[in-house]
Design brief:
The chain has about 190 residues and is mainly alpha-helical. Helix content is about 75%, strand content about 0%.
Length: about 190
């Protein structure tokens, strides 16, 4: 049977599936919707590859140029776009963290953006592009903010490094000046003495 899903999640998925155009079609076939797409014994783990590509589950019933095939490809494209945006934000935030910069608020927001990707994957069960687009667009807005936060943090790191460099050069010049002054005083004392 299909892998165990928490009760609340199963009810939500079932509700979305029951609203989808697939439900009446699969019902006339006498097939449970979960099994048609996810398999029975070798349960397919949900992924964007199920929607589009050479091994897509959707391609079993939908021709690539049909409305269903195009919808599956568009839903996969939207989720790939969000996944890529999240990956870019993760990379820049991780660089900021490893540089010792404070980006904890952006990291928390990044978790919220990851939740929108989960919501988009769940919305696929409704088989409507608009249902997937809504959480994806929300996630993209958050990912853009977190990416900017990472950029600002790295810019601040660079400003601090420049400031530290200027301070270090100033200290070295001052020390050299003091050394010259002491050496000059010592030479004068040696000449008088």
């Amino acid at each position: 049977s299909v892998a165990a899903v928490c009760g609340t999640c199963h009810v939500l998925l079932e509700d979305l599936y029951n609203k989808s155009p697939h439900q009446p079609v699969f019902a006339t076939m006498g097939a449970a919707g979960c099994i048609v797409c996810h398999g029975n014994h070798a349960v397919l783990k949900p992924s964007m590859k199920m929607l589009a590509g050479p091994d897509a589950v959707c391609a079993q019933c939908h021709e690539p140029d049909s409305s269903g095939g195009q919808a599956a490809v568009e839903m996969a494209r939207l989720m790939n776009e969000l996944s890529s945006a999240l990956r870019r934000s993760d990379e820049i935030l991780n660089r900021a963290v490893s540089s010792g910069m404070e980006v904890s608020e952006a990291l928390l927001e990044q978790n919220e953006a990851r939740e929108t990707l989960v919501k988009a994957r769940v919305a696929v069960h409704e088989s409507r592009i608009a249902a997937v687009r809504q959480p994806v667009e929300q996630g993209l807005r958050i990912a853009a903010r977190t990416h900017r936060a990472g950029e600002f943090a790295l810019e601040e790191r660079n400003r601090r490094r420049i400031g530290l460099g200027v301070a270090l050069v100033t200290i070295v010049v001052t020390m050299f000046g003091l050394w010259l002054a002491i050496r000059t005083i010592e030479q004068r004392q040696a000449q008088r003495g």
